[in-house]
Amino acid sequence: MDLLKKRIVEDGTVLPGNVLKVDNFLNHQVDSQLMDKIGVEFARLFKNEKITKVVTVESSGIAPALTTAIHLGVPLIFARKHKSLTLTDNLYTASVYSYTKQVSNDISVDKRFLNAGDRILIIDDFLANGQAVQGLLEIAKLANVSVAGIGIVIEKSFQKGHTLIEKSGVRLESLARIASLSDGKVTFVD
Ligand code: G4P
Ligand code: NA
Ligand code: NA
């Protein structure tokens, strides 16, 4: 998606540790018009997949997931993050390890919101090591729902997540694919 790549080049900042800061349009201030166009693009890519729900993880996934859900005409569910809970009978829960923060958190979705027969589209803002997506795939399995695909706004193709999803066989569509953030410079795949 050229508009998104242009925005990354113009407004993104590369921080030490291969981190791309995009808090002026995606992760803190949200460019609502750009988010709408991202939703239109994901909806176009997955329009023939008979999707019944869009699923993401709070918090930064919610903006692109919501616009996608609007353009597909389906509900959005965001998994909630929390420390391990004791009362989980009514929840589908997966543990998500963050390499960046070196902590595990649980993410969960109330059982009422995923039902047999649902066909979900997973959306997230970033794909790095793929642990958040992996957690959502685990929840989909627990809930016995099918996964039509995964839509990512910004993929860091040089980290583990891309390969991990490829191995799972689930369709992956990333709107911007970053090959490298070396020397403070953004280089895209292709
Ligand atoms: P992953 O395995 O889920 O791919 O993520 P990882 O633990 O590597 O990264 C932890 C958090 O940092 C995730 O957000 C992820 O989206 C985000 N992240 C990873 N690389 C980058 C980057 O280069 N730039 C930015 N801006 N974010 C990055 P989170 O803390 O789980 O989610 P949220 O609370 O921000 O929604
Ligand atoms: Na994030
Ligand atoms: Na996210």
Query: What is the overall number of helices?
Result: 5
Cross-sheet strand order for the largest sheet: 5-6-4-3-7-8-9-10
β-strand amount:
25-35%
Give the cofactors and ligands.
guanosine-5',3'-tetraphosphate, sodium ion
Q: What form results from the Cα inertia axes? A: globular
The strand count comes to 10
* Main β-sheet description: 8 strands, mixed
User: What order do the helices and strands follow?
Assistant: HEEHEHEEEEHEHEE
Instruction: Name the average pLDDT.
Output: 96
List unreliable stretches of 5+ residues.
Answer: none
Distance between the termini: 13 Å
Which structural category do the helix and sheet elements fall into? alpha/beta
| Gyration radius from CA atoms, angstroms | 16 Å
Q: How much helix is in the residues? A: 25-40%
Describe the structure.
This protein has 190 residues and is of the alpha/beta class. Helices cover 29% and strands 34% of the residues. It contains 5 helices and 10 strands, in the order H-E-E-H-E-H-E-E-E-E-H-E-H-E-E. Strands 5-6-4-3-7-8-9-10 form an 8-stranded mixed sheet, sandwiched between helices. Strands 1-2 form a two-stranded antiparallel ribbon. The longest helix has 14 residues, at 32-45. The two termini are 13 Å apart. 37% of the residues are buried. Residues 57, 60-61, 124-126, 132 line the site of one sodium ion (NA). One sodium ion binds next to strand 7.
